[in-house]
Write a structure and sequence with these properties.
By secondary structure, this protein is mostly helical. The protein has one helix and two strands, in the order ββα. The protein folds into two domains: 32 residues; 31 residues. The chain starts with a strand and ends in a 13-residue tail after the last helix.
Length: 76
């Protein structure tokens, strides 16, 4: 049993190990790609950012309400 460094984090792992015990990167076989993580981040930003912006705007309107314009009464 020899030790080899992980290709991702550099931690020494057994040559018989299937994944790195530190970062869970596969040491052999099919390599997991990070594109799932990037898709999840993009979707979270796509759907979460507008909700956060709207919540900030609503809170700002409640803290600093805009005065209503004076009503115009027609002169006869």
């Amino acid at each position: 049993m020899a030790l080899e460094p992980c290709k991702e984090c550099g931690t020494l792992n057994s040559t018989e190990a299937e994944i790195c015990l530190a970062c869970e990167y596969p040491t052999k076989g099919r390599v997991r790609s990070n594109w799932f993580k990037w898709i999840a981040i993009c979707l979270a930003l796509l759907f979460g950012l507008p909700i956060i912006i709207e919540a900030i705007q609503v809170a700002n309107r409640q803290i600093n309400p805009q005065p209503s314009p004076p009503s115009r009464i027609p002169i006869q």
